[in-house]
Amino acid sequence: MNIFKKTYKRLILMIISVFLLFNLCGCENISFNFNSNDKQSDEQDQQMGIDEKFEGYSTYFYEQLTPKEQGFYREILAILQKRGEKVKISVSDKATIDKIYSCVMNDHPEIFYVSGYSLTQGSETYFSGTYIYSKEEINSRKQKIDEYVAKCFAQIPTNADSYTKVKNVYEYIVSHTRYESVEGEDQNICSVFILGKSVCMGYSKATQYLLNCLGVKTILVTGYANIVINGVHISAAGQGDNHAWNQVLIDGNWYCVDTTWGGGFSSEGSSEKGGKPINYDYLLCTTDEFNIAHKVSENIKVPLCNHSEQNYFVREGAYFETVDLNKFGSLVKRQTSNKKHVISIKCGSQEIYSKMKKILIQDGKIRDYISKNQSENLYQSCSDDMLTLTFFF
Q1: For 249-302, what is each residue's pLDDT tens digit?
Q2: How far apart are CA 276 and CA 267, in angstroms?
Q3: Residues 300 and 335 in one domain
Q4: Which end of the chain has fewer surrounding CB within 10 Å, N or C?
């Protein structure tokens, strides 16, 4: 009887073991094969702070996916964060993988060490990231990025509101970055944070990275933009040049930001006192304003920006709904007292813009508000599209 009980128990345990083994094997969808055999890989990943720091990162494009696609997104994100190679994934359709990969990269500018991916397909599909830096180089670059971030954040006032954070990040990137292509480097945040020169993708990803770190939800937007020469829009292939910019969420409303075009003035507008000029036309705008020269890619959907409360000109008291020269004079005094050598205003209508432009530029009345010495260094810029007037001196 005792022998029977022991045999019975052993049989039950054997059945349970086989059952568990079967289910564990059947559920194994992903197996990681990392680049390095270093046993301290996980510890180094933690030191990089990727998973922890960006756990609550803006996931706008993730949120646009179906629940099934979100599962694919999490798989690919995990692979790229771990720098995995030939990792089995549960999706095989190339178009779907392209879509998911783009969403991951749009949401995560901190994955600066990836330039693409490759697939190995047969009965199963295996995913590999294309990694442009070694693990050691990634860690080295991460330290330099942290140094840049610390300097940028140091000049932002304590307890700053979202508007102030966006404005300071915009100004800092524009002031510390030169628009210049860098082969193999200008599509990620390293170009801005380490090299100090980039193109629109680098500018936009750097803006996204900094603002998300500051708690301001920011998304990357890609599409096309028209080049404007003497008020005439010159477009390539009927749609414009490839371009990237951002949208930010402030007090529940979305606004458009183009940091690249924040440095859009020519070198003639520079002054020794004022430093590198900043164009504020594209700081916290509406969709209608951006649509004048920007066009979002057809394959993505972004929120509508239809509020002006946080627009730069509105917040800075530089928005003119009437021809008010007293207000303009007060603005000039405030700027010069703060040692600012740039005056930029936006008009609420074409009529007000035309009148202010005639008075200040065509009639030369701007010189009534600045000193003779400042007049000698005066540079004027106007945008008939954005209804803005800017003066450097």
Answers
A1: 999 999 999 999 998 654 343 433 345 678 999 999 999 999 988 999 888 889
A2: 8
A3: no
A4: N
Task: Please report which helix (H) or strand (E) contains residue 250, including its range.
Answer: strand 241-250
What is the reported pTM? Answer: 0.82
φ/ψ region of 295 (left if φ > 0, alpha if ψ in -120 to 50, else beta) reads beta
91-132 confidence digits (pLDDT tens): 999 999 999 999 999 999 999 999 999 999 999 999 999 999
d(CA 235, CA 240): 4
Residue 60: domain span: 31-132
CA dist list (Å): 118 to 61, 129, 147, 342, 362: 22, 6, 33, 49, 59
Q: Are strands 218-225 and 125-131 parallel, antiparallel or unpaired?
A: unpaired
Bridge partners, residue 243, by sequence = 223
Separation CA 379–CA 342 (nearest Å)? 9
- Among 102, 132, 162, which residue terminates a domain? 132
DSSP code, position 157: P
Verify that 177 and 42 share a domain, yes or no: no
Q: Is residue 55 located within the same domain as residue 200?
A: no
CA 327, CA 202: separation in Å to the nearest integer? Answer: 38
> What spatial distance separates the first Cα and last Cα of the chain, rounded to whole Å?
104
pLDDT higher than 70, residue 1: no
CA 310 – CA 284 distance, rounded (Å): 7
Which residue do the tokens 């939800």 mark? 217
Find out whether 282 and 293 touch, Cβ atoms under 8 Å: no
3-class state of residue 272 by DSSP: coil
